[in-house]
Design brief:
single chain, 181 residues, 50% helix, binds protoporphyrin IX containing FE
Length: 181
């Protein structure tokens, strides 16, 4: 997993709690990297799982909630780093459809070792999109947070529902709430 995910996560922990919390979760996670991440490095994704579990234990907040909150925050950081991906895109569902077709394709060119999920999209209407997520890393909660971060970025509200398909892929249905602008 790319270092930017780790540096953004530890930054969020420091801002939401403090540096002591960062030290505590690093100490409690038995990390091969020792917790020294650079944004361009690549690290075992199990280190991220260990850090989130340690934060969950230390704060008594569920791993699912922490991953969703982190995903929402991470979207803001990713788009700040790559504003070109949103250039000219006005509709959040157009953007989300573009994650598989365009954004992650470009990400793969920038970082050939990135471990990216797969999305199958079905645009039901202008205001409704079904996105089926699959990844061996099963970061469904992070994915939900990233979708929420995207909606926030485009200043749109939506009903977001999720269900696990029999083959363990996760189906997200995003229905935009009408916009009276
Ligand atoms: C500016 C937009 C985006 C950029 C630049 C971006 C880039 C990235 C990068 C660099 C990673 C890390 C890969 C690794 O650790 O090896 C990643 C992972 C991921 N991305 Fe994106 N992404 C963007 C938007 C999104 C959106 C909107 C979604 C959700 C629909 C999404 C879903 C995910 C998920 C779930 C992962 C974790 C890997 C996994 O599940 O296997 N991304 N992305």
């Amino acid at each position: 997993m790319k270092g930017v995910v780790f540096t953004t996560f530890l930054d969020m922990v420091e801002k939401t709690w403090n540096l002591d919390m960062v030290d505590t979760i690093i100490e409690n996670s038995e990390l091969e990297s020792g917790g020294a991440y650079t944004s361009v490095g690549t690290y075992d994704h199990t280190e991220a799982v260990a850090l989130v579990s340690a934060l969950s234990k230390a704060t008594d907040i569920g791993v699912d909630t922490l991953l969703q909150t982190f995903g929402k925050h991470l979207f803001g950081v990713l788009i700040d780093g790559h504003p070109e991906f949103a250039a000219g895109v006005e509709h959040p569902l157009d953007f989300l459809e573009g994650v598989e077709r365009y954004i992650h394709v470009e990400v793969r060119k920038l970082y050939p070792d990135a471990e990216l999920p797969k999305f199958e999209c079905d645009r039901k209407s202008d205001d409704e999109l079904i996105m089926i997520y699959s990844s061996g890393r099963h970061l469904e909660d992070l994915c939900e947070g990233l979708i929420e971060g995207c909606l926030k970025f485009f200043k749109r509200q939506a009903q977001l529902s999720r269900s696990t398909l029999p083959d363990t892929r996760e189906q997200f249905t995003i229905s935009l709430v009408s916009d009276d602008r």
